[in-house]
Write a structure and sequence with these properties.
The structure holds two protein chains of two kinds. Chain A is mainly alpha-helical. Among the domains of chain A are: 38 residues; 37 residues. Chain A is built from four helices and no strands. Chain A starts with a helix and ends with a helix. By secondary structure, chain B is an all-alpha fold. Chain B folds into two domains: 89 residues, RNA polymerase sigma factor, region 2, helix turn helix motif (Rna Polymerase Sigma Factor, Chain: A, Orthogonal Bundle), CATH 1.10.1740.10; 93 residues, Orthogonal Bundle (Arc Repressor Mutant, subunit A). The longest helix of chain B is centred in the last third of the chain and has 23 residues. Classes of the chains: A mainly alpha, B mainly alpha. Chains A and B meet through helix 1, helix 2 and helix 4 of A and helix 1, helix 2, helix 3, helix 6 and helix 7 of B.
Chain lengths: 119, 191
């Protein structure tokens, strides 16, 4: 650590919080005098509903993919204008999106774990 | 450090011991007030918002799951309450851009320099010259002792973003100190 880093660290160590007025705690206690801790509210949306919607969407996607692959020979005329291996590209994009989603989910899980470890 | 005690106090409050909440207010009032004061510079306004934070925290205390430190949970409420207060304040609150800040910094530091009798007041004055979010992140990291991950939770950003933002805020603070004291900054550190 350079001398400048040390002096900078000293500078930061000197920080102290500012103080509100002397009556602050009393004011807060006066305000909450007539209040009660609110009971934990139920979740706004039932998790089963969310899972149900997700399941339906995934099912739709799977059915679409199945139809595209099985009915390749009887596809409408306009599909000939699509680039070659179009469905493969589409599949590739979906896999990449899935990987991004998985990475986000795992990193959020890791963050929660880190916060719990820091307790 | 206070974590176990915080949880015990919360349990006690949830069991009906309302007076125990005063201990938590006493313990965190200066940190909450400082964080809010970084975003809302008007002292009276910052104090009102801090009070609102503690009332909100009390009302939703049953919702504190203990998955994070109580301080992190409380500072998250402080951050969101201050931000929504600023939004409600509307056009009265204007954040200066970097060039404007630099110009203000030059003027203010020149104006206040003779008042820097102690290192502490000098550092606090320099922090107040930072843009609000930079001042907040410096306060959270050094004063309120929150980790990068916790700052990410409080300020609703990715930990990597928080890390970069903290680094930049530190650089800006360093620039302000150097601009204010120049080659004589060693005198500041020695006080």
């Amino acid at each position: 650590m350079t001398q400048e880093d040390n002096t900078y660290k000293n500078l930061m160590d000197a920080l102290e919080p500012e103080q509100p007025s002397m009556r602050f705690t009393k004011n807060v206690m006066d305000v909450i005098e007539g209040m009660e801790v609110a009971p934990v509210s139920k979740r706004y949306v039932n998790p089963l509903v969310v899972k149900g919607i997700a399941a339906v969407l995934i099912l739709c996607i799977l059915i679409s993919i199945f139809v595209v692959f099985t009915a390749a020979g009887s596809l409408p005329e306009y599909t000939n204008k699509l680039p070659q291996h179009f469905s493969l590209y589409l599949l590739g994009i979906n896999i990449v999106l899935l990987m991004i989603l998985a990475e986000r989910w795992l990193s959020s899980k890791k963050r929660i774990q880190d916060l719990q470890d820091n307790r | 450090m206070h974590q176990a005690q915080d949880v015990d106090i919360i349990q006690s409050i949830l069991q009906g011991n309302k007076a125990a909440y005063a201990v938590l207010v006493e313990r965190y009032q200066s940190y909450v007030y400082t964080i809010i004061n970084r975003l809302i510079p008007v002292r009276e306004e910052a104090e009102d918002v801090s009070q609102e934070v503690f009332v909100k925290a009390y009302l939703s205390l049953a919702g504190f799951k203990g998955t994070s430190k109580f301080s992190t949970w409380l500072y998250t409420i402080a951050h969101t309450t201050a931000i929504s207060h600023l939004r409600k304040s509307g056009p009265n609150v204007v954040f200066a851009d970097e060039n404007t800040m630099a110009a203000i910094t030059d003027n203010r530091t020149a104006f206040h320099q003779p008042q820097h009798n102690t290192l502490r007041s000098a550092v606090n004055t320099c922090i107040k010259l930072l843009p609000p979010d930079d001042a907040e992140i410096i306060t959270l990291f050094y004063m309120a002792e929150q980790s990068i991950e916790e700052i990410g939770v409080i300020m609703r950003m990715e930990p990597n973003t928080a890390k970069v933002k903290l680094h930049r805020a530190r650089q800006k603070l360093k620039d302000i100190v150097e601009r204010a004291y120049g080659k004589e900054k060693t005198l500041l550190y020695r006080n």
